[in-house]
Design a protein that fits this description.
The complex is a heterodimer of chains A (462) and B (472). In chain A, strands 1-13-12-11-14-15 form a six-stranded parallel sheet, with helices on both faces. Chain A is of the alpha/beta class and 462 residues long. In chain A, helix 1 (21-29) crosses helix 7 (147-162) and helix 4 runs parallel beside helix 6 (113-127). In chain A, 45% of the residues lie in helices and 14% in strands. With 472 residues, chain B is an alpha/beta fold. Chain B has 20 helices and 14 strands. In chain B, the strands form three sheets. A six-stranded mixed sheet of chain B has the order 1-12-11-10-13-14, sandwiched between helices. Chain B has a four-stranded parallel sheet with strand order 3-2-4-5. The longest helix of chain B is centred in the middle third of the chain and has 26 residues, at 301-326. The chains are: A alpha/beta (462), B alpha/beta (472). At the A-B interface, strand 2, helix 1, helix 2, strand 4 and helix 3 of A face helix 1, helix 2, strand 3, helix 4 and helix 5 of B. Strand 2 (13-14) of chain A pairs antiparallel with strand 3 (98-99) of chain B.
Chain lengths: 462, 472
């Protein structure tokens, strides 16, 4: 009984949980409207990240590369930044924002990105006097942090660059959801709308799920506009749903423009969602409407059918982004699942001291382990260990073979989930997300009972 | 006329040298697109990097080898779960990826110790695996970590393991092609000839430049088994590290993908005198030709004719069923390079399909010489095509189907054009006789997908007619 918080002992990684910083920065960048991120590095640094996004969303996203070649590695890549930006601006007349995202190679070479941007701004002014394109330096060396930090880094850099002055109060809430699916963004917007709150979503990825239309137009892009980004300084408050994915930008707005920052528990599960809605209500003075009480009731009702019948005493391994893993663990406790193993996948030393982790540790009256700087080999070793029982895995598709090879039911959650259809469309946050996640876990367990002939007859009468 | 400056390229006019529209009466002496040249920054090119050319394309295929990537985590993460090359031992190669997870302090103080530790850990964690490739990446190449020295030290300490090093950072060359080259030459110079194979047949060959995409290697292997030819090494589909060390003992090198693997065949000829025979493995007529050439070399022509007859009896009827229904369809091919010339004539001959546009990410001059020779007039031949160019070319040629990667596939879906995965296939294998029927079937199912008609329907228009018809 009790919880142990450890760190992976090996130095190397076998099967990583996260991609590197520039990948996260690219994800934040594509959430902005009329924006094409420009990755300053080798071509693979953007090509494979684009493929990863395409695998998850089944959509194409535009990300450009400075195509760093040998000569730039030796003599510096200054000209390639300039050429890259100018080529983009000339060929894409709608373009308004270009985050220049650095990588390991260009950080090692030491290219002066800011200096080049100053030069570029002068050139743009001359060539396009009636057009403003925001070129933003985003420093994301791959040898620091991970895609989690890179996401945060880009959100913060863009806000710092575009919210440069305190604008008139606009009565809006800045909502930083973190790295979530379009389904979550739609749900959060629904909450704001039900409560009559005007919000700016940073970043609004609703259209990452985009239609095939008769006129063949393409709408697969972020929705957060330059005006909205500039207007964040005039909001009545910021609410950050993920401590490690965007909260730093909210804190910046508080420090610089006195926009109060609320870093809330990531709204996975019923209690965390309650806390979010209460926070929103307190900030705005608007009541929580009947409609959301009903949505909450539907979720509690659905989960009630599953908790003590199927979920109780089941040991769950959870891996993915830190805020999500912690939120999932809290959700598990609500439905009597035991969060037995939490894997957090980079070297951020703050995880161990995260008050939410410490609260879980204080509550644990079951065997629980938190492994920091973990890889999926840590999961696989435990899954293969007959003395270490794992009943359910919650995580993204990169861990699929641990589930397949060890016959453990797995519910896909997080990023990426390319081996299941349409998951990006559904929320995991909020009441509805909790309900859908609980049902996904239950259905994974049910299918497993059938394929392994493990008391599948229980379901004859359920 | 022939070199084309597209409207979207008016600000990067040098792109004109990369796009060719073939006209009757011209040949490659007159016009040949510039290729294997630097990419213009910011163009949204489709190219990857040299590291991936080595790791993802060639090394990572091996079924018994740890792929240790010395660099930050992204290079490992990004070259994992992006390929469809199964193996007959449970897909070890697709399940795992290894990284030294370089952090800032290692960039500052050097990462050799961390590499050494990571290599030892990997062998300790997977004691049944004794073979490893180690790759440099951009930052570890820039700081000058000596990965060869580390590998040498470990091989001295652990005599049962063997390690091959690939020094090919992402910024080397202009595309993944550079990585193919570096790996080929490194392997022949350092590893070929260090082990002797068991010879089980009087006819032996290496099969080079085929990566077992959805089982291509395994399908073709049935042919070689029937012909009684021992394949000493598969470079590298379903291959093993030690088989590849024995390449020097084959009597013949049969080369499918000349772009990624022609280098090693050339070296095997130079260093060991083993002749090189280039073949095409996609398409009935090409496969027949390939079998005839190989059998002629060994003097087993009658075995070859028997195999061809058997395979035709089994598959030709099915192929013709699809041919009847695909005839006249327009196809575009946007892949790496060689598949352009492997496919353009075979889909024309075997399926009556017309290839109207082709774009190569990393082909060289010789690839364009081949594809322009084999391809039709009225077709666009593009080097390193980018997104805006694709839109414009699509408008010009209006293909019925595009063979390309999944991301571009998602893009063209919005334009109501179906894609078939030209890299990893939809439901392959696509090589050999059976494989080409699979390709034909996937193309047929794509072109005849009923959703395309539904997508074109605008329900606001009173009569339910296709959008394009309504607009006319």
């Amino acid at each position: 009984m009790g919880c142990e918080i450890t760190t992976k002992k090996r130095q190397g990684i076998i099967n990583p949980m996260y991609d590197c910083q520039p990948a996260g920065a690219q994800y934040a960048g594509i959430g902005i409207k009329d924006c094409i991120p420009l990755v300053h590095g080798g071509q693979g640094c953007s090509m494979f990240v684009r493929l990863l996004f395409a695998q998850h969303f089944k959509e194409n996203f535009d990300v450009a590369s400075t195509s760093l070649h040998e000569d730039s590695a030796v003599f510096g890549g200054h000209q390639r930044i300039i050429d890259g930006v100018l080529t983009l601006v000339r060929r894409y007349p709608e373009l308004r924002v270009i985050p220049v995202i650095t990588t390991c190679s260009t950080e090692v070479i030491g290219d002066d990105v800011e200096g080049n941007i100053t030069k570029i701004n002068e050139m743009l002014k001359e060539e396009f006097p009636n057009r403003k394109v925001h070129v933003v330096a985003v420093h994301t060396p791959s040898f620091k942090s991970s895609q989690v930090g890179g996401y945060s880094q880009c959100v913060e850099a863009v806000i710092k660059n575009l919210a440069t002055a305190k604008v008139k109060s606009n009565g809006k809430i800045n909502l930083f959801p973190g790295w979530v699916n379009p389904g979550d963004v739609v749900l959060l917007k629904h909450y704001l709308s039900e409560m009559g709150i005007d919000g700016t979503i940073l970043m609004d990825t609703e259209d990452f799920d985009s239609p095939m239309l008769p006129d063949k137009s393409i709408h697969t892009h972020g929705r957060t506009t330059v005006e909205e980004l500039a207007g964040t300084s005039g909001a009545i408050a910021s609410v950050a749903l993920a401590r490690y994915e965007g909260a730093s930008a909210a804190e910046y707005l508080e420090k610089e423009f006195e926009v109060p920052a609320h870093v809330v528990s990531t709204p996975y599960g019923i209690g965390n969602t309650d806390a979010l809605l209460r926070t929103l209500s307190e900030i705005t003075g608007k009541p929580i409407p009947e409609s959301l009480v009903k949505e909450r009731g539907l979720a509690v009702d659905a989960l009630q059918d599953l908790a003590h019948m199927f979920f109780a005493n089941k040991r769950v391994a959870i891996f993915g982004h830190p805020d999500m893993v912690i939120g999932m663990a809290e959700f598990c406790l609500e439905v009597e699942l035991e969060p037995a193993l939490l894997l957090l996948g980079d070297d951020n030393s703050k995880y161990k001291k995260d008050p939410r982790i410490l609260a879980l540790k204080a509550r644990a009256n079951w065997d629980m382990e938190v492994v920091c700087n973990a890889d999926l080999w840590e999961l696989e070793k435990r899954a293969k260990d007959p003395d270490y029982k794992i009943d359910v895995i919650l995580g993204h598709s990169k861990g699929r073979y641990v589930a397949i090879d060890n016959n453990i039911p797995m519910a896909r959650v997080g990023f990426p989930t390319f081996d299941r259809a349409g998951l990006y469309r559904h929320p995991t946050m909020g009441y509805r997300g909790a309900m859908l996640l609980g049902e996904a876990i239950a259905n994974a367990m049910f299918a497993h009972m059938e394929y392994t002939r493990d008391r599948e007859w229980i379901l004859n009468t359920w | 006329m022939p070199m084309v400056l597209l409207e979207c390229d008016k600000d990067i006019p040098e792109r004109e040298k990369h796009i060719y529209l073939k006209v009757d009466g011209e040949d490659t002496r007159d016009f040949l697109p510039v290729s294997n040249a630097q990419t213009i920054p910011g163009t949204l090119s489709e190219r990857g990097c040299a590291f991936c050319g080595a790791k993802l394309v060639i090394g990572g295929v091996l079924k018994d080898t740890i792929q240790m990537i010395h660099g930050p985590i992204g290079c490992a993460y990004d070259t994992w779960h992006t390929k469809r090359y199964p193996t007959d031992n449970g897909h070890f190669n697709m399940k795992y990826v290894w990284s030294t997870d370089m952090k800032e302090s290692h960039i500052v103080f050097g990462g050799e110790k961390r590499l050494e530790k990571s290599i030892n850990e990997a062998f300790d964690e997977m004691p049944e695996i004794k073979r490893m490739f180690v790759y440099t990446t951009c930052p570890t190449a820039l700081i000058g970590d000596d990965i060869k020295a580390v590998a040498k030290k470990i091989m001295q300490e652990r005599p049962d393991v063997d390690i091959f090093t690939v020094e090919c950072p992402g910024f080397a060359g202009v595309s993944q092609s550079k990585g193919h080259h570096v790996l080929n030459i490194g392997w022949i110079n350092e590893k070929v000839g260090t082990l002797e194979p068991t010879i089980t047949s009087e006819y032996t060959m290496n099969f080079i430049g085929d990566f077992n995409i959805q089982g291509d290697t395994q399908l073709l292997n049935q042919y070689w088994d029937k012909l009684g030819i021992q394949v000493i090494a598969h470079f590298t589909g379903n291959g093993t590290y030690d088989d590849l060390r024995c390449m020097h003992r084959a009597q013949l090198n049969v080369v499918n993908c000349a772009r990624s693997s022609g280098y090693i065949a050339n070296e095997l000829k130079k260093q060991y005198g083993i002749p090189r025979l280039d073949i095409d493995s996609w398409g009935f007529s090409y496969m027949e030709e390939a079998i005839r050439k190989i059998c002629a070399f060994f003097g087993i022509e009658d075995r070859g004719e028997k195999l061809i007859a058997e395979e035709n009896a089994k598959w030709k009827g099915k192929l013709d069923w699809y041919k009847e229904r695909l005839k006249g369809s327009k196809m575009a091919i946007w892949t790496g390079g060689p598949r352009l010339w492997h496919w353009t004539k075979s889909v024309e001959d075997d399926l009556g399909v017309q290839v109207v546009a082709m774009s190569s990410k990393f082909g060289h001059q010789e690839d364009f010489e081949k594809v322009i020779a084999r391809g039709q007039a009225g077709t666009y031949y593009i080097d390193d095509g980018n997104e805006l160019e694709f839109f414009e070319i699509i408008d010009r040629v209006r293909p019925d189907v595009i063979f390309t990667g999944p991301r571009v596939g998602e893009l063209v879906k919005k334009l109501h054009i179906p894609y078939v995965n030209g890299h990893g296939y939809h439901n392959g294998p696509y090589m050999g006789f059976e494989g080409f029927v699979n390709l034909a079937r996937d193309m047929y199912n794509a072109v005849h997908n009923p959703l395309l008609k539904l997508a074109a329907t605008d329900i606001r228009v009173k009569e339910v007619v296709a959008y394009s018809e309504a607009a006319e």
